[in-house]
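USER:
Class, as today's exercise, take the chain set out below, and explain how the chain folds.
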Amino acid sequence: MTKGVEGSPVFVSCNQFDSERSADIYADGVLVRNAYKIYGVGRNRCAILEGLHMTVKKGTIYGLLGASGCGKTTLLSCLIGRRRLNSGDILVFGHEPGSEESGIPGRRVGYMPQELALHGYFTIKETLHYFGRIYNLKAEFIDAQLEFLSKLLDLPPGDRYVKTLSGGQQRRVSFAVALFHEPELLILDEPTVGVDPLLRQSIWNHLVRLSVDHERTVIVTTHYIEEARQANTIGMMRSGRLLAEDSPENLLHSYALRSLEDVFLQLCMKDFSNAEVVNIHENTSEVSLEDQQLSGGIDNVGFEPSASQLDISGTPIPRQRNKMACTLPSLPSDCVSKVVLNQGTGITFMTNARPKEIGLKLSDRRTNRNRNSTFFCRHRLGALIQKNFLQMFRNVGLFLFVFLLPANQVILSCLCIGGDLSFLKLAIVNDELDPSQGRVCNYTTTCTYSMFSCRYLRFIENTTIIQVPFQSVAEALDATKRGNVWGVVHFGKDFTDELVVRQADGNYADNETIRASRVAITLDESNQQISLTIKRQLIDAFSDFSKDILAACSYQPMAQSIPVTFLEPIYGERKPSFTEYVTPGVILGIIYFLSVALTSAVFLTERKSGLHDRSIVAGVQMTEYMMAHLVNQLILLLGQTFFVYLFALIVFNTACHGNLALVIFITLLQGLCGMSFGLLVSALCDEETSAIQITLGTNYTNIIMSGMLWPTEAMPTYVRHLAHLMPQTYAMQALRNILGRGWGIGHPKVYMGVVTSLCWIFGLVCLSLIVVRVRKYTG
């Protein structure tokens, strides 16, 4: 065998590596080649994994070491199918993660993330039973595993809530979930953090037993470097690349150091200061090497196995179990790779192919990434529905608040909005009264022309307007300015006499007579509704006063009325209530808002806690997740809708002239529309505060523009067109037309409410899926 010279190139045909790999590619538990993962877009692009290679043999423990932020968690998320590489290949048990053949995500993998990824309001027993149902485990097996893992991990009693446990106890419960279904592949992200040393050793002993006795494959990341000595293979990771991959014994022997921590430190220092840069020549069949300082680029593929893995010529030594050699990257079959000895401790591969072209040719092994052929699985759907109900009923106070909130809003709306105003104080200055007689207001009901002011005041409704007498106009105006009264009504000293003269003279009455015969009213017009109410009351009172005088004097009372008559209304009542206009809008508004808030809160909370990802890794499909939430939300919506219309229609007698089933259907559609928007909000936001801001902001926009509080006909034309694009505008109009007019689904103003709601649901769901997909690949 020819002895290699340090720094001299050794050319190895790519076909050699391909043939070596094809024989055992299915024997590897996990195989990663040329993995690149980039987050962000544009200037914010950040490479997390850069040409990473990793090999994990079946039935071994692989310890992945590296500082925080080096890409360990990202790599694990790609292994379990939660993220996809920008370039490169991953095989788990010979298949791509996410394919049906790989069984990952699913029962073949047990995953313990860094975060707790458990629901705090569940007990330990409920938590394990939830995942047991997802995996479709038998009840006997679940009980047996619960007892075994409780002893192994020294778990607290099963009826303890997860949120009441200490940090270390919570980590142990999380570990128990990963072990619960006895998976073929265990991926544990720092499982021993915060665990007692004795228990840590017990955990490692159990992992060793699993790998040796049951052929389980285990990948462990840890900050405790020395505890990784118990692993069969160690991969030391930095800046998205593996610096070395070998057994602990070989690493210590190769670098002649006593601790793995010293080995890792030396590798990191060497990677930082002594890396090389390779100029790539794309038009030649062979690649020349120039020794340069490494500037750190994605086009460099660096790898350093220990010297013990190479013979004198640089040819890889055949790998053995528990003493696996450095993983060699496979290259395209039409190129020639150059292997350069690097200071006797490693090799570096260079190729004329770009990073996206580098990688194992796996196209013949790629399969459909749909994890399940069925739309949903009953046992997983049942587990999710049970979880949602358990989560809902665990906090009874919050559940009752959410359940009864729509009915409460309708009750408050009917009590507080649209009713008749009352107890409005109005200043009365009557100069017709005689101060010497104590300013007593005396009048008669006969045909006598005297004290018309007192006779007129008698017809003002005293429950709506409270008359407050004042001595002078100045005092009354001052009280109005201070906000003590809403206005001033002033009668002149000769009001009755001048009014009689005005009636007698007709067109010949002079201006002074006309001025003296008027009722002078000065109002506080700052509140439109109060002002309009006072004006209506005063005008109606004068009309009744005129009719009373005419009737007393044997004239036709209707002779003085205006020649305009309002006949029986086609729809509604003669005196319509603003409450009946507002109530349909309030019902749909609160149903929609609560659906948005609940959906976004549930998805965000579970995603942020990690429970959502953990459930997906366990095999739950997104369709199942959405269907389970849909079932729970629909049941909640039905209960809310029942109580809403119970109070609106029966207690407060809101008119319903149409089909009640159609009313309920439109209400439920608006709830589904709110759920769809909540799904979009949860897809867009990472924090609850952002979701709350979007939810509240859009809700107020809906209230203002959908015609909930005021007709859209009052809006400017261009705003009105925008208002009709809102998700609730047509639905509110449809609900009002059904309740107040009795129209059916055949009327355009009714079915438009149904059609627009369905369109919004479809559009929002599609947009949510697009956002989820985009964020998945851009980070």
In short: The longest helix spans residues 578-609. The domain at 424-560 is CATH 3.40.1710 (abc type-2 transporter like fold). Residues 1-23, 275-373 have pLDDT under 50 and may be disordered.
